[in-house]
Amino acid sequence: MEKAEIWELFEEIVYYYPSFTGESKKAAAWHEILVKVPYDLALKNLKRYASVPANKYSPHPGVLADRTGQNIEGNYVPNAEETRRMLEEKDQMLLTDRSIPDKALERMRKLGYKSIR
Q: Is the pTM of this model over 0.85?
């Protein structure tokens, strides 16, 4: 995001949060956080944030930089199917680990683990 876009973003924030103020030092600090964030994404995040009634105060730059759900590195929350698959893979790794004592494996079988050596 360009510095000029920070000021445009500040104007948008004021539409939703009239008490929000922007000054040069704040714009510079926000630019450091948002420099790699596209303006359109920040604006979309602002509108999403402002649409939640509980958000009575203006957002901080981290909220506007949120890339959750954007196919990039960062936080990602798997859906139910992905979670099941990850847990099954983890179970399989545990069950094929030769360092697990036979007594522990037997207890795991009784608890319902499926694929046990």
A: no
Report residue 86's pLDDT band, with 50, 70 and 90 as the boundaries: confident
| Same-domain check for residues 88 and 44 | no
Write the secondary structure of the chain as one string of H (helix), E (strand) and C (coil).
CCHHHHHHHHHHHHHHCCCCCCCHHHHHHHHHHHCCCCHHHHHHHHHHHHCCCCCCCCCCHHHHCCCCCCCCCCCCCCCHHHHHHHHHHHHHHHHHCCCCCHHHHHHHHHHCCCCCC
Residue 117, in any domain of the structure: no
Tally Cβ neighbours within 10 Å of residue 9. 23
Say whether both 10 and 59 belong to one domain: yes
- Residues 87, 51: one domain? no
